[in-house]
Amino acid sequence: MARTAEAVNAVIKAYDVRGVVGEQIDAAFVRDVGSSFARLVKDSSVTQVAIGHDMRASSPELAKAFADGVTSQGLNVVHIGLASTDQLYFASGLLDCPGAMFTASHNPAKYNGIKLCRSGAKPVGQDTGLATIKSELVEGVPSFDGEPGTVTERDVLSDYASFVKNLVDLSQVSGVKIAVDAGNGMGGHTVPAVFEGLPVTVEPLYFELDGTFPNHEANPLDPENLKDLQKFVLDTGADIGLAFDGDADRCFVVDEKGDPVSPSAVTGLVAERELAKEPGATVIHNLITSRAVPELVTELGGTPVRTRVGHSFIKQQMADTGAIFGGEHSAHYYFRDFWGADSGMLAALHVLAALGSQDRPLSELMSHYETYSASGEINSTVADAAERTTAVLETFADRTVSIDRLDGVTVDLKDGAWFNLRASNTEPLLRLNVEARSSSEVDALTSEILDVVRA
């Protein structure tokens, strides 16, 4: 069936499909997306599509509808059932076939969506297929006259667990106590499988799969959602805390004191470990990752490559440069050994391996990678993002060394501090990130910028 462009554009975003179930997304819509996706990826080498889904109540029905759409175009479906997003990427890599993951990640329970990839977990975004799918949903997806495909089921959880563990030397993790907040998301599905057989103690929090998220939002990027884990680490005497988002492709780290570890510091640690395996390799970082990351990569003889914010840009750079690893401030971590896709679990295993290989507590280990203070991302609602950005640039003109416009504006100041202002693509927001040598400098600079932004 044909749909209005407005309705389709509201749901098919820059990188995925996402909307309110029953209002913006239903089984009929998803069936057409599946049918169009099958047409997009079908060629002589593609005979099947892997499908996985999260724990949301709507996910099984929507995944089935998508499968109906795929098979209606003559392709087969391999249904892997309950899965984390990186588990679906694993299936796409293992089976060398396109994939579809049903999840709305950290969004509230009323939402659902689809993350799509081509064979080998290659991302599908606006320029690599979503625009084509949009057009077909508006015009009507052409039907297929041949034989429909078939649906088979395959459990890849144990294969996934073995694969990620084999990528990291975990021989020295014995005795580590790990507090894990799964946020009622898919970490409650993958963590038991991955940590089974390891000589560690796992203290589980909110492992029950529940797409209503009864305890807190499954979005560890919001500091509010880390508070339960921070307390749990202290209560259990854990050496490390891990918090996964709803589809468990992102992982945040808390140290033994209950303090959050910056994703930039995790990026630095993993980069150091990967460069030890392949000296001189390329490491990707986005432009609001701490400057400590490219400085460390350069110091270690690697090649840092800076990119815009967003997983599609990082994955493209991973492919273009052959980078061994990439990291983002949002706790997405990308690995060449994982088909260039992101896996929070794999990053967590690297941190555990590093912790277990030496005698210091995690807070001391990570201090080596946290050489600057940062504000974190601060959002401001503004009527005119461009006008407010110009006002900020004028305010700091006499203190500015350089301005970079790769993504928003990144301003380097004479005192060594820097900040980035980026307008949201979907909301009337300006996003601010500040970094300086000390927290007091960060606080002062942040306040000064926000006074102008919010004037």
Name its key features.
455 residues; Alpha-D-Glucose-1,6-Bisphosphate, Chain A, domain 3; 4 domains; globular; seven-stranded mixed beta sheet
What does this structure look like?
- The protein is α/β, with parallel strands linked by helices.
- It has four domains: 5-155, Alpha-D-Glucose-1,6-Bisphosphate, subunit A, domain 3 (Alpha-D-Glucose-1,6-Bisphosphate, Chain A, domain 3); 159-257, Alpha-D-Glucose-1,6-Bisphosphate, Chain A, domain 3 (3-Layer(aba) Sandwich), CATH 3.40.120.10; 263-367, 3-Layer(aba) Sandwich (Alpha-D-Glucose-1,6-Bisphosphate, Chain A, domain 3); 373-453, Alpha-D-phosphohexomutase, C-terminal domain (TATA-Binding Protein, 2-Layer Sandwich).
- Helix content is 36%, strand content 22%.
- The chain has 15 helices and 22 strands.
- The strands form four sheets. Strands 1, 2, 3, 4, 5, 6 and 7 form a seven-stranded mixed sheet that branches.
- Strand 10 (240-244) and strand 11 form a beta hairpin.
- The longest helix has 15 residues, at 27-41.
- The relative contact order is 0.10.
* CATH fold name of the largest domain: Alpha-D-Glucose-1,6-Bisphosphate, Chain A, domain 3
Query: How much strand content do the residues show?
Result: 15-25%
CA-based gyration radius: 22 Å
Q: How many structural domains can be distinguished in the coordinates?
A: 4
- Structural class, by secondary structure, is alpha/beta
At the first level of CATH, the class of the largest domain is Alpha Beta
Compute the number of helices.
Answer: 15
- Uncertain residue ranges: none
Keywords: Isomerase, Magnesium, Metal-binding, Phosphoprotein
Organism: Rhodococcus sovatensis
Cofactor: Mg(2+)
Domain Alpha-D-phosphohexomutase C-terminal: 377-451
